Amino acid sequence: MAKVYDMQRPAYDAVARTLHWLTVLLVAMQFVIGWTMPDVHKDTQPVNLIAWHLGVGATLVAVMAIRVIWRLTHWPTPDELPPLLSAVSRITHVLLYATLVLVPLLGWINASSRGWTVRLLGLVPYPALSKPGSAFGHEMGDVHGILAWVLFALIGLHVVAALFHRFVLKDHVLQRMLPHAGPSRDQG
Ligand code: HEM
Ligand code: HEM
User: Does some domain include residue 165?
Assistant: First the structure.
């Protein structure tokens, strides 16, 4: 395990770090708004907190699209963790990406089924992903709420892991993603 303490790990590049912390901010807002906004029923109008949930959600969709493209074209230098830890970390990150894409998409599908238009910054309309009144779109709203809990659990695991690296293993994993981390050596 000595390697874990010795290693000097390069940071993610500045774009990846900016996208990571922007995602954290937007996802935190989505949880707070999603859990405090009124229940959505058949005749509910997309106003106030619900309008905020759609608006912040539209930004998150755009940020995640850019983030996935960036990630696929700019691979960070592999970590130097023991194989098991590295595998757990990679699996968690893949699951995080999957839920970060799926949860917003399902919310968007549900919004479309309610006849609500999702707009980026209140201006640019996104296409409808399901027909107004669609039963499928309605059900995806339930899946959206359930999968949000899965995302929440993954984030909890992820944050505990980050703090474990920083305070127990005392390695450089957290520094790889901090805003002021040194210059990156990504392989993009
Ligand atoms: C990671 C991002 C997101 C999180 C964490 C999140 C979280 C939530 C939560 C917790 C609820 C309440 C669920 C319930 O009480 O059962 C909710 C409902 C909803 N969200 Fe999201 N949301 C996200 C992204 C989005 C996006 C991008 C959209 C649309 C563009 C969206 C549209 C909706 C709609 C329409 C509902 C009402 C669903 C229903 O009750 O049938 N959400 N969301
Ligand atoms: C909404 C909350 C969060 C989400 C959705 C999230 C998501 C992610 C994702 C998807 C990755 C993989 C990056 C990649 O390989 O491209 C990642 C990496 C990372 N995150 Fe987070 N994160 C969140 C919060 C946090 C917090 C609060 C911390 C610090 C306490 C943190 C620390 C890190 C670190 C250090 C890495 C790099 C891990 C490594 O080098 O292997 N994250 N995060």
Answer: yes
